[in-house]
Amino acid sequence: MRFLICYDVVDDKLRAKIVRILENYGERIQYSVFEFNLNPAKIIEMKHKLIKGKLLNRKQMSFSVYPICEH
Question: Which end of the chain has fewer CB atoms at under 10 Å, N or C?
Fold first, then answer.
């Protein structure tokens, strides 16, 4: 499955933690945009790491996931 993740995170330390995880799974397209081509198991693994680290439960951030059509 192909998709983009775009984020805007104010806190530098939090942003660095998120980037470290995302870099292990996808390619950085722009400073705050990553592209991924992952199977469902890897998507769940990445999501679990972000949630387990409590990296997405912040008020001063945006974190969006956009699916990309295979065609």
Answer: C
pLDDT digits (tens, 9 = 90+) for 40-63: 899 889 989 998 888 887 777 888
User: CA separation (Å) from 65 to 47, 50, 71?
Assistant: 11, 13, 18
Taking only the tens place, the pLDDT of each residue in 14-48 is: 899 999 999 999 999 999 999 999 998 998 899 89
Residue 36 CA to residue 4 CA, distance in Å, equals: 6
Cβ neighbours of residue 13 under 8 Å, at least 6 residues apart? none
Question: Taking the CB of residue 28, how many other CB atoms lie within 10 A of it?
Answer: 12
Kindly state the DSSP code that residue 67 receives in the 8-state scheme: E
